[in-house]
Amino acid sequence: MSLAGPINDELAAWDRDCLLHPTTHTANHARGDVPGRIVTGGKGVHIEDRDGNRFLDAFAALYCVNVGYGRTEIADAMNDQAQKLAYFHAFAGHGNEPAITLARLIMDRAPEHMARVYFGLSGSDANETNVKLAWHYNILRGKPEKRKIISRWRAYHGSGIVSGSMTGLKAYHARFHLPLEGFLHAATPHYLRRDDATLSEAAFTDRLIADLEAMMLSEGPETIAAFIGEPVMGTGGILPPPEGYWGRVQELLDRYDILLISDEVVCGFGRTGSMFGATHYGLKPDFMTIAKGLTSAYAPLSGSVISQRVFDVLMQGSDDFGALAHGWTYSAHPVSCAAGIATLNLVDELGLLGNASSTGPYLLQRLRDAVGSHPNVAEVRGVGLMAAVEFMEDPGTFKWFEPPMSMSGKISAAMLRRGVIARPMPEGDIIGFAPPLCITPQEVDQVVEALQGAVQEVLG
Ligand code: PMP
What we know:
Cofactor: pyridoxal 5'-phosphate
Number of domains: 2
Number of helices: 16
Radius of gyration: 22 Å
CATH class of the largest domain: Alpha Beta
Family: Belongs to the class-III pyridoxal-phosphate-dependent aminotransferase family.
GO molecular function, one term: transaminase activity
Distance between the termini: 49 Å
Strand order of the largest sheet: 4-10-9-8-7-5-6
Pfam families: Aminotran_3
Bound molecules: 4'-deoxy-4'-aminopyridoxal-5'-phosphate
Largest sheet: 7 strands, mixed
Shape: globular
Helix content: 40-55%
InterPro entries: Aminotrans_3, Aminotrans_3_PPA_site, PyrdxlP-dep_Trfase, PyrdxlP-dep_Trfase_major, PyrdxlP-dep_Trfase_small
CATH superfamily of the largest domain: Type I PLP-dependent aspartate aminotransferase-like (Major domain)
CATH architecture of the largest domain: 3-Layer(aba) Sandwich
């Protein structure tokens, strides 16, 4: 069987016949009605498919290929490690060189009060780990009933049973009987969608905080272990928090002895222009969930970074409860950790935090100039190199397009025809941008021109 030419058609058939894709309509895909593509290569901010099409990827795949595609430094590091030692487990105190070195690099970059990292494979599993560690911490403190977790509507924390319970998107709960008991959701901190149009942004924050405190008091703070939040909500629509929000949430958590899990899967390693979202907003988390940008997705790897105060309590574990009965086969995988080391070095060498701080505001300004005054544009928002444009049929009366995602689906398809990938995001009509952190202003111009053309084509 040749791997050139017509094999591609057979490959497409194998894809339909053998593969179940995430978040893809099963029957439509099996029938060949889903306009996916088989991606074969990438360089910088571009990907290529098997038909020779080239696209500027303005979403870094799933906001993860932060250093850009085709970095041979990372591929070489993985190759070297695979040849030397592809795998040994990290159970019962076993270590490997790249995992230990990467842990050091992470701790050097994390806020000073963070103490250790536990490696996993995905953002979802790292969030499961965080919940178990929060429970473990409270059991060791003699507070086993302190177990509930507060998340927020429109949050995304993963697709597992626990992480999916913390996710606040209805589609991830429906039919799975989620969320599990004890997983609560507070209101979304999105000023545009306040239910009272007369509220100022400061008054909106006041209301969010009052409602969150009321939830804590009615549940009983002695039953609540942790609050989990993305510093900037990602999948829910790229939502920078309203003025003053995070400082006030942190005050409540401190007051009621509730741990903070900062889900940095998207924000971590430079997307906001700061190393972490927590540092960007002055938070003091007890856990940071890291993944995506940690390896720029060159290999699967995640981490739960824990604070000194949590670690101090874990240190008190008795002989029968000192070991954490929680381990993934691939924790601290040497090849993934080698990819992580090479990635973090590249983030420094390429000055990607600086680029996110300078090219990010340029992207936002260009988006505002291009479509901000369009009658169907309700909001153009962003921070660092993440931005979103939200569309409504009538922003003045908060009238949505029906059904949700119909316009954003058409606009992103029209952008694709112009050679640019942007992401339609759930619950409304939102187009999200989160390009590789190495994007240049000239490439930003191409992205914005594609959006402008697409909006003109779809909405007039
Ligand atoms: N947390 C956040 C904030 C995410 O955006 C994601 C994935 N998009 C996850 C957790 C879950 O990560 P994974 O898909 O690697 O399980």
